[in-house]
Structures are given as C-alpha cells and as structure tokens.
C-alpha cells in the first residue's frame, strides 16, 4: 500500500475502483511525466449520491463533500495509469465545475472539498493551482465535477 493510500486509510477513506467512462474517453491518460484525468463525477459504487444544482436542490456543504468524492475518483484514475500514487511529484492543477443555481456564487468553497482532500492525502505535493467554475448543468445532473493534472516522478 502506498503512503498516500495509508493516509487515506488514516482519514477513514479508501481508494475506489476507477469510474468507467460514460462516453468515448479514458478516465486518465499519461503524457510524459504528466497525468491528466477526465472530469470525475462524485460517483459512489456506480451511482451519484445526489443530483441537482448547488444553491437549489443541493447545499454548498453537500457539494463540498461531493467534490471530495470527485478527488478520490481522480486519484483512482491517476493510479490506474501511474501504477502507484507515491509516484505523484505534485498536483499541478485542479479544475472544478459546479452546477449552480443562477444566484449561487460559492463555487470556490465547493471545490475546496477536492483541494483540501488532495492536500490532506499528499501534503505539500497536493497543493495546486485551481479554477472553480459555475455551469448550468453537468452530465447526469451531477452537482460537481473535478479534473486533476499531476506531475509524476520518473518511473
């Protein structure tokens, strides 16, 4: 078990199975020393635990927890191509999308769920640049979606 997975266990979490693609794409691809994940929805055992817009059907706090799930799914996708989470030299960038009610402006706080999880699990290597964007709708009516770009150490 990698140090990152041991840290997840300390937090009471486990790395999930890679979420299968919903369309014509790969969950993650490696190019050189970088891994780029596809947008990760907060899928748990093949299902979205909650659907709807943040600020309407979904609270900001619920969405923040969903962003944590997205980050876990992203780590699983990274491991699927890198082989070991301990190969992560650093998380370079996180892009978060929040399906938002028209008056909701708390996207950064929602995506903090993903950012904070990555820092908890990876320490300084998990601190990253980030964008948090409000959108009208996401696939399957998901409230949040997160993609991650990481740099790997040499194999």
Automatic annotation (TrEMBL):
Pfam families, per the entry: YjgF_endoribonc (PF14588)
SUPFAM superfamilies recorded: YjgF-like (SSF55298)
CDD domains, sorted: YjgF_YER057c_UK114_like_1
Gene3D superfamilies xref list: RutC-like
Signal peptide: none
InterPro entries to which the protein is assigned, alphabetical: Endoribo_LPSP/chorism_mut-like, RutC-like_sf
Top-rank taxon, per record: Bacteria
Protein's name in the database: RidA family protein
Biological source species: Streptomyces lanatus
């Amino acid at each position: 078990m990698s140090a990152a997975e041991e840290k997840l266990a300390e937090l009471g979490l486990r790395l999930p199975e890679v979420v299968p693609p919903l369309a014509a794409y790969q969950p993650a691809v490696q190019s050189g020393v970088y891994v780029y994940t596809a947008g990760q929805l907060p899928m748990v055992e093949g299902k979205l635990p909650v659907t709807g817009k943040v600020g309407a059907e979904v609270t900001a706090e619920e969405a923040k927890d969903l962003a944590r799930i997205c980050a876990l799914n992203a780590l699983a996708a990274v491991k699927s191509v890198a082989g070991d989470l301990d190969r992560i030299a650093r998380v370079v960038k996180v892009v978060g999308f929040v399906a938002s009610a028209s008056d909701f402006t708390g996207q950064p706080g929602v995506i903090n769920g993903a950012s904070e999880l990555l820092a908890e699990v990876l320490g300084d290597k998990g601190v990253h640049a980030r964008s948090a964007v409000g959108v009208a709708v996401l696939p399957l009516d998901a409230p949040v979606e997160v993609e991650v770009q990481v740099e790997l150490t040499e194999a």
